Amino acid sequence: MPLFDKAEIMDKDAIRRALVRIAHEIVEKNKGLDNVVMVGIRRRGVPLAQRLAKILGEIENKEVPVGELDITLYRDDLTMRFDQPHVGRTHLPFDVAKKKVILVDDVLYTGRTVRAALDAIVDLGRPECIQLAVLIDRGHREIPIRADYVGKNVPTSRKEVIHVRLTEVDGVEQVVISEEKDEE
User: Fold this and answer.
1) What pLDDT is attached to residue 148?
2) Phi then psi for 39, rounded to 5 degrees?
3) Are residues 42 and 68 in contact, defined by beta-carbon separation less than 8 angstroms?
């Protein structure tokens, strides 16, 4: 069934404000940025991680390394989703061992993507800790995972879909809630 955009949840300014707030929370919780690295989950987690790192750098006048993580091969539902999965690039220009890893994604839903990302990171080394930052938490967890930093909580039904659209990927900046449209 086709989806139609039901409502805009966040515009460009709301996204920016949420990221600035999350950045301040990261600095506060970690008492600065020593050993903090950002890891964006491909696809939209990567530009969000880059934006957060830039904001953190402006707040603390310190560069925060950013990496990107592809979790395709770590998904527990891989065979249900794709006949031939497309594996993207994982690029971490740093060792995760003994680092405070801030894992960044656009939407937290069932928790399966985050679980896969945790497995992937731990395979690369043993961080001091892993914290999760998401732009949207929509509920409906299937795995007991919660975000440390949330831009916006958006209760949804399972029929609804949250679309985060970012300039770097989509050419537009907004978060919308979509729903299946009944065809008549």
Assistant:
1) 98
2) -130, 110
3) yes
Rounded to the nearest 5°, which phi and psi values hold at 56? Answer: -60, -40
For residue 172 the two structure tokens come to 């537009």
Q: What tokens were used for 72?
A: 């395709």
- Look up the CATH number of domain 12-76+87-162: 3.40.50.2020
For Cα atoms 7, 11, 17, give the angle at the middle one, nearest 5 degrees.
135
Q: Can you tell me the distance from the alpha carbon of 45 to that of 132, in angstroms, rounded to the nearest whole number?
A: 11
User: Which residues, 6 or more positions from 150, have their beta carbon under 8 angstroms from its beta carbon?
Assistant: 22, 108, 133, 134, 136, 137
The HSE-up count of residue 181 (CA atoms within 13 Å, CB side) is 9
Q: How far is CA 83 from CA 71, 73, 77, 86, 115, in A?
A: 16, 13, 11, 10, 22
Give residue-wise pLDDT tens across range 152-176: 999 999 899 999 999 999 999 999 9
Q: If you average pLDDT over residues 117-124, what whole number do you get?
A: 94
3-state class (DSSP) for residue 145: coil
Half-sphere exposure (CA, 13 Å, Cβ side) for 158? 4
Domain range summary for the chain, segments of one domain joined by +: 12-76+87-162
Q: 16: phi > 0 → left, psi -120 to 50 → alpha, else beta; which? A: alpha
Given CA atoms 148, 140, 7, 162 in this order, what sign does their dihedral have? positive
Task: For residues 39-53, give the mean pLDDT.
Answer: 97
